[in-house]
Design a protein that fits this description.
The structure holds 2 protein chains of 2 kinds.
Chain A (H helix, E strand, L loop, with lengths): L8 H11 L6 E4 L4 H13 L5 E4 L3 E2 L22 E2 L2 H9 L5 E5 L2 E2 L5 E2 L2 E3 L4 E4 L6 H4 L5 E5 L21 E5 L3 E5 L5 E6 L5 H7 L6 E7 L5 H10 L11
Parallel strand pairs in A: 1-2, 1-5, 5-10, 10-11, 13-14
Antiparallel strand pairs in A: 3-4, 6-7, 8-9, 11-12, 12-13
Helix pairs in contact in A: 1-2, 2-6
Chain B lengths: L3 E2 L1 H6 L6 E4 L9 H9 L5 E4 L2 E2 L1 H8 L3 E6 L1 E2 L8 H8 L4 E4 L2 H13 L3 E4 L7 H5 L2 E5 L6 E6 L5 E10 L4 E2 L7 H7 L2 E10 L17 E4 L17 H9 L1 H8 L6
Parallel strand pairs in B: 1-14, 2-3, 2-11, 3-5, 4-6, 5-7, 11-13, 13-14
Antiparallel strand pairs in B: 8-10, 9-10, 11-12
The chains are: A alpha/beta, B alpha/beta.
GO molecular function, one term (chain A): CoA-transferase activity
Protein name (chain A): 3-oxoadipate--succinyl-CoA transferase subunit B
Keywords (chain A): Transferase
């Protein structure tokens, strides 16, 4: 690259998501999911050309040319699609074992890759009422593998104990601004990779559950020139930054 | 006979305490004009059904028009949390019937099929079934497999904002239909609002909602604004920010409440 660029966590996280998508997989993201939306297109243009993109916008395999900084359920996510495939079809697909990847998130995530999007405090008398888990309670146990992400990495987000278990199931990876976790022995998340600006000690300090290295632990491969070009081309509006405030 | 009426008259048929399914998803093609009119007429104790709700649910929470919400997600996506819904729940004024979006759909399907409940694959390991009572576990009488079931949700009224409708209630949605066709089939009554009302002899596209299911149809130009109604208009970001900064001032600008 000709000029020096400062990479942001959103850049690492989006590229990390894209790299975890395999060719031919059927992939879903829901509301408020700008990084997954961009990452799916990045994967499809980079190494997973036959991956199938499914979203709330209700079509199979759209090729959006623009991403919003406010929504991931809009008409832009229908662009270039040929056939209809509704949200209800996606849930049915997952229920019968036909959905490969779902991108999901939570306000809290625990070491089993379970998530809370329901409430902080008790469910019945919450200190903070959260939006709700959207599709996650049905998708997480039925999708083949879920990739969770979280835009903050601290002991309030990655917790020992969830206030409410909104959803549990087939979490394979959790991606944060600092690191990637992968499910390992006894179904527990283990440290899979660290992004360049972080360190093992920082991860341990900022994670609410015990951090152990995954057998496949490795240094995050630098973002390639090709990935970077595609990322800029796909996400012209910088929608990937819109979850960070 | 024409089913066309005004939005005021259509809202006038809604009883306090009614169970309403609202079409659209998040900030897209929700029946916002209808919601404003519900608030103007001072409707109370409503219960709402939505897979993913946003401004529609939050406005009704602000106006203290709702007592409960059946939904998978209520929030403004990347704009942030739904402040009035959140406050209403935290104060104990609004009961959250927290579903997964898929179980809202399954509950509506039970009504479509005319059965009291619907099996659904999911919820293993989730605390929601125990916390909400909405999901119960039964043993399949054929396979003896443990299966989650959800009780039928039969909306009193489904309110769906569409691009084009005719005077007989046939209605066309340009773009994502979301869960609207499911809501229309599950509800006791269907009210359509539309950006444009045409003569039924002049259709050039095929309506997805058949008029025989629809009771009333009302014109509502920009009826989903400041949310989107593709391809006519997208989310008015400034208006959403204005709402979130001062919801009460936003509401007062839009609605003069008739009962105070």
């Amino acid at each position: 690259m000709s000029s020096i660029i400062t990479l942001e966590p959103a850049d690492y996280m989006t590229v990390a998501m894209a790299r975890l998508i395999q060719d031919g997989e059927r992939i879903f993201h829901g509301v408020a999911s700008p990084m997954p939306a961009v990452a799916i297109q990045l994967a499809k243009k980079h190494h997973a050309k036959k991956a199938v993109y499914l979203s709330i916008a209700g079509t199979a395999d759209a090729v959006p040319t623009e991403f919003s900084r406010h929504t991931t359920a809009g008409a832009n996510l229908r662009e270039g699609a040929v056939s209809e495939f509704l949200l209800s079809d996606i849930f049915d697909l997952s229920a019968r074992g036909g959905l490969d990847v779902a991108f999901l998130s939570g306000a809290q995530i625990d070491e089993y890759g379970r998530l809370n999007l329901s409430a902080i405090g008790s469910f019945q008398q919450p200190k903070v009422r959260l939006p709700g888990g959207a599709g996650s309670a049905a998708l997480l146990p039925t999708v083949k593998r879920a990739i969770l992400w979280k835009t903050t990495h601290d002991t309030r987000s990655l917790v020992e104990k969830l206030d409410v278990i909104t959803a549990a199931g087939n979490t394979e990876y959790v991606i944060t601004p600092l690191a990637i976790f992968k499910r390992g022995k006894q179904g527990k998340l283990q440290l899979y990779s660290i992004f360049p600006e972080s360190s093992f000690d920082e991860i341990v300090e900022k994670t609410g559950f015990k951090v152990e290295k995954h057998p496949q632990y490795h240094v995050f491969e630098p973002i390639t020139e090709r990935e970077w070009e595609l990322l800029l081309e796909i996400d012209k509006n910088g929608s990937r930054f819109s979850e960070f405030r | 006979m024409s089913k066309q009426t005004s939005i005021q008259e259509a809202v006038g048929t809604i009883d306090n305490g009614a169970l309403l399914a609202l079409g659209g998803n998040a900030l897209h093609r929700s029946p916002i004009a209808f919601v404003f009119e519900l608030i103007r007429q001072g409707k109370k104790d409503l219960s709402l059904i939505k897979t993913a709700g946003a401004l529609d649910v939050d406005l009704l929470a602000l106006a203290k028009s709702i007592r409960s919400v059946h939904a998978g997600y209520i929030g403004f996506e990347m704009f942030g949390l739904a402040p009035n819904y959140r406050r209403g729940v935290q104060k104990g004024e609004i009961t959250v019937h927290e579903h997964a979006c898929a179980s809202v759909i399954a509950a509506l399907r039970a009504s479509i099929y005319g059965v009291p409940f619907q099996p659904i694959h999911g919820f293993q390991g989730s605390s929601l079934p125990e916390l909400t009572g909405l999901i119960k576990w039964i043993t399949c009488p054929f396979t003896e497999k443990k299966t989650a079931v959800v009780e039928a949700l039969r909306p009193d009224v489904a309110v769906i904002h569409t691009n084009i409708a005719d005077e007989q209630g046939n209605a066309y949605i340009d773009g994502a239909v979301f869960e609207d066709l499911i809501m229309a089939k599950a509800a006791r009554r269907v009210i359509i609002t539309a950006e444009k009302i045409i003569d039924s002899a002049t259709w050039t596209v095929q309506p997805q909602i058949p008029g025989f299911l629809v009771e009333q149809v009302a014109l509502a130009e920009k009826g989903a604004a400041p949310g989107s109604c593709a391809p006519l208009y997208s989310i008015d970001e400034k208006e959403i920010h204005r709402y979130l900064e001062n919801p009460q001032a936003f509401l007062e600008r839009k609605v003069v409440v008739s009962h105070v």
